[in-house]
Each structure stands twice: as C-alpha cells, then as structure tokens.
Amino acid sequence: MAIIKVEDLVKRYNGTEAVRGVSFEVMEGETFSFLGPNGAGKTTTINILCTLLGFDSGTAMVNGYDCRRDAHKVRSSIGLVFQEVTLDNELTAYENLKFHCYMYNMEKRLSEERIEEILHVVGLFERRDDLVKKFSGGMKRRLEIARGLLHRPKVLFLDEPTLGLDPQTRSHVWEFIRKLKKSEGNTVFMTTHYMDEAEVSDRIAIIDRGQIIAFGSPDELKRGLKGDTIYLKTADDAKASSEIEAKFGLKPKRIEGGLALMVESGEKFIPRLFERLETGIVSVNLKRPSLEDVFINLTGREIRENQPAPRHRG
Amino acid sequence: MLSYKAIYVITLREFKRFFRQRGRLIVTAARPLIWLFIVGSGFTRLIDTDDSVQYIQFILPGIVGMTILFSSVFSTISVVWDREFGFLREMLVAPVSRVTIVFGKLLSGTALSVVQGAAILLVAPLLGLDVGITEFLVMIVLMFLVALAITAMGLFIASFLASLEGFNVIMNFIVLPMFFLSGALYPVGSLPPYIKVFAFINPLCYGVDAFKHVILPGQGRLTAEFPIWADLAFVSIFAVAFTFASAYVFERRK
Q1: Distance, in angstroms, between B229 CA and closest chain A CA?
Q2: pLDDT tens digits in sequence order for chain B, 254 residues long
Q3: Do residues A23 and A101 both lie within one domain?
C-alpha cells in the first residue's frame, strides 16, 4: 500500500519553480530516500508533505490524507526531524519529550511509558533530567529522532538527518536509525546528499533541479550504469595490457600501480581473465559502480560540486 | 479547534524558561525597583505635590504598568526567538491549530506579566499605600486585562519580525514611547495637545489609569484622569482587536 502519494507536484517561489512536476509513491514500511544536491527541491518537497508549505499544483497525500485539505490528520500521522535543531535548550530531555506528548494529545500514562521506552532506545535515559543545552550535537540529534518517534507516527520524515555532524557521530546516528527501523517498523522518508546514506534505503529517487531524474532501488540504479571497474596488478603491466587488448578486445587504462579495466560484469570477467592471461596476476580488485557514479552519469556533474572528483568512474 | 493540553504545555514551558533564566529574573525584579526607589525618591524631593499623594506613590501604578509592558513584549519576542532557533517548527508541525499556538503564547505572556505585576504591588505598603486584599484582587483582574491587550499587541508585531534584530527597533519606537505616554511618570492631561493624541491611542495609558483608580483612590491632581468605564472599555477593545489580529496574521504566515 502506498503511504505517500505525490502526483505532478509543482511549487514556485517568486516565479521560479523549485519543484517541477514531481511524482512518486512510497510504500508502507519502506525506507525511501530523496537524493540530490543542495537546492534540488528536497526540503521543499518534505515541507509540503509535512503541511508546512503550500504548493501550486498537483496532489500530495500522506497516509490517505490530502496534505492541503486534511493538514491536521496528516500532521497526526507523521513524525518529523528537521535539518536544524528544534529542541528547547532551556528544557531537559524529559521536558522536551513531555512537551511533544502534550502537543500530540497523548494520554498521560501512555506518554510516561513511551518517554521512558524511547529514552532507553536512544541511550539517553541516564541524562533525561539534564538540560538539552549541555548535550553534544549527536545527543541532540538522537533526542530529536526520539521525539519524532514518540507518538508512533506512520511515517518518519528525516530531513538531512546527519547534516553538520562529524563522521563518527554520523555513523552512530545511522546505526541508530537502522536499529530503530527494525524495532519500530515505520516508513522512513528521508532526504540526503550523502551517497552512502542513500545506499541503505530500499528505494531512492534522485532529484535534481526540481525534477526526479531516476527512481529505483540502489542496485537497480547502479545496474543502469553499464559496467564494473577491475583494478589489476600484474608482474608486467605493459605486457599484460597488450595481452588483454589482443585477447579480449578491451583497452585497459594505465593507472598508478596497475591497470584499470571497464567491463560489463566484473564477476564473470575475472575468471576468464585468470584463465587466459599469461602474465602473472598479483592482485585483482573489483569496484561496483556507486550512486555517485549514477548521479554523475545522469547529470554530468558531481553531487557536491566542491568535492574532489571520485577516484574511480564506472 | 482549541487544544487545551497544548495551551497548557506552551504556558508551562514559558514559565519554566522564565524561572530558569537567572539574568532575566534579576533584571525583571530590579528594573521596577530602580524606577521606584531611585527615580521615584529623587523626584519626590523635587516635585512638590499639593495633595495627599506623594510622587513616589503616584508612580507605583505606572511602574506596575511598565512591568507588564516590558514583560508582555519580552514574552512575545519568544515567538521570534522560537522561529530563529527552530522550536517554532516543532509547534507548527504538531496536530494543533495555529489559533491554539497563538492562545498558548497569549496566555503564557499574560500570566507571566500578572505574576510580575503582582510582585511589584507587594511593595505598596512600604510606600505608605493602603492596598488591601480587595484592592489586590481587583488589581489582578485589571492587570490580566492590560497584560492580555499588550501581549496580543506584541504578538501581532512579533509575527512580522523575522529576526531578533528588529527587537531593538520595537523597543525604541514603540515600547518606550508607550511607557512615557502612559501617565506613569506624569499625568497625560498636562501634555501638549499634539503629544496628548498619542497618549489617547495608547492602551497602556488606560491601563495605568485603571490602576490609579484602585491604588490612588479619591480626587486630586495626581489621581486617575478618565472614568473607569472608559479605561475598561478601551483596554478591552485593544485586547480583543489585537487577539483577533494576531490570530489572523499567524494563521496566514507559516
């Protein structure tokens, strides 16, 4: 069953279209990622789905409710973790969660149970009576995700959940989201511009300049790119290179410390290589295409413009 | 339409924040006392009042009004604060109506002002004023009305402010003139006509005048200047008008 349904969504800001006719469906229970560079329209779409923003045309439905007409019911069905911190620093962890329970009209006894449960899950139970301003960035994020899950929403929206966190905290938060996903089982809709984060989702929509340019599971998307890369070290690279050219009709690229070879299916090619190559092989390394490669292939650009080029291209 | 639980918890949050911010507490307590005992006693020597009301006694209703004014405006700045620090989004995405959030902010701002105004009233006996339990209770009701009017006005203004920078402008061009044209430090009747006009559209002016009816009973040069029904009518009109206006603006803006 589709829990999120978006059809032909258009949002304009002062005449320019931030979201240009986006359509997609998210199934119940899946983890769905919106992957794209900054300014692609990810946050705009999430804000529309969360009823924080109106739109110009198209339809947006969450949990069977129209985001415009039944905004109230949509809001009861969702949990939201924003890009920036939206906790009250002057309140304790417990008080922040308690505030949320009241706003979501949760029954008193249920909310006490739930707060305790979720504080244990996020590992902040011992710190529940500390003011949030004493928390580290990672702890705040965890508390915020906990708050988003407090009322057992059907869909949890995560807008760039690890933005501004250091790599170690990022991986902690991720591990935590995965664990939560198992124990709570809700649909997760998130936006990210990190490839490795999108990689763990069931399905991905790649969005660029307000339009979805690719859609599918990470594997499906990568399969769309023809070819794996094989990195090869041999006893004599020059000799191996001409041998491969003669025997397989492929032209290896000379790279630092070996050869790089683009082939359609790496797993099938490697055994043949061992069988027929007379030059001794020192090591073989197979690199599957990454989502980064998918994005570059689709747009001719990298997702983060200011980043150095990836070392391997598919 | 209104979620009482949400209104309650928004109010509770503002109270917790207020009592936790020590700096704010100290300033709140010190400002009216400085006005009363430093400015007030200074001018008492200078100003020869002909009737039974001393200058320091005369300014007490005005200082209560000032306390409410600053407290209410400061409370509504929390909307701007919440917007800047993101907490407003936590409220906006919750399944409660915008009007509920407006009422929560109104009630918390009003209640905090009444608590502070009541605290200032406690010094009345030190000034030789006869404020008994009846006067105190009547003052609570009046202070509630005045605080509501000013909080609603503040909320209306705050919903247009995108950042805290605008706060200084508001302070200098709205809050201070409101205080100086409220009859707190001198009767508005003695102001030149072209300035008097501004006093007449100032809700705090009617509020302070109502306080004078209770705190400085009798007839004299320094007692209330308008009939009490006029004070109540003006303050009520301001309260209702700005409540609707702020609810309307909040509903439109997200």
Answers
A1: 39
A2: 788 999 999 999 999 999 988 888 888 888 898 988 888 888 887 877 666 788 888 999 999 999 999 999 988 888 888 888 889 889 989 999 989 999 999 999 999 999 999 999 999 988 888 888 999 999 999 999 999 999 999 999 888 887 778 777 877 788 999 999 999 989 998 889 999 999 999 999 999 999 999 998 877 778 888 899 999 999 999 999 999 999 998 887 65
A3: yes
Mutation target to probe the A interface, by most A beta carbons within 10 A, among B18, B87, B99, B105 is B87
Smallest CA–CA separation between B73 and chain A, in Å? Answer: 20
Which of the four pLDDT bands, split at 50, 70 and 90, describes residue A279? Answer: confident
- A308, part of any domain: no
Length of chain B: 254
How many Å lie between the alpha carbon of A308 and the closest alpha carbon of chain B? 33
Under DSSP, the state recorded for A265 is -
Model confidence pTM above 0.90: no
A100 CB neighbours in chain B (<8 A) are: 90, 94
Strand order from edge to edge, sheet including A155-159: A78-81, A155-159, A187-192, A31-35, A203-208, A211-216
Which is it for the CA torsion A75, A80, A83, A89, positive or negative?
A: positive
How crowded is residue B19: how many other Cβ atoms within 10 Å of its Cβ?
11
Q: Are A92 and A80 in a shared domain? A: yes
Q: Given an 8 Å threshold on Cβ–Cβ distance, is B21 in contact with A90?
A: yes
Last residue of a domain, one of A172, A198, A222: A222
Rg value, chain A, Cα: 24
What is the maximal distance between C-alpha atoms in chain A? 77
Nearest to A104 among B13, B85, B95 (CB): B95
pLDDT digits (tens, 9 = 90+) for A1-10: 889 999 999 9
Position A41, amino acid: G
Amino acid B85: pLDDT: 81
The partner residue sitting opposite B86, judged by closest CB among A82, A90, A104, is: A82
Q: Using one digit for the tens of pLDDT, what is the confidence trace for A131-178?
A: 999 999 889 988 998 899 898 899 999 888 877 777 777 777 788 777
Residues A171 and A241 in one domain: no
State which residue of chain B sits closest to A53, comparing Cα positions. B254
DSSP tag of A87 = S
ipTM of the modeled complex: 0.88
Q: Measure the CA dihedral A39/A42/A48/A53, to 10°.
A: -20
Measure the CA–CA gap between A66 and A58, rounded to whole angstroms.
Answer: 11
Residues A231, A202: one domain? no
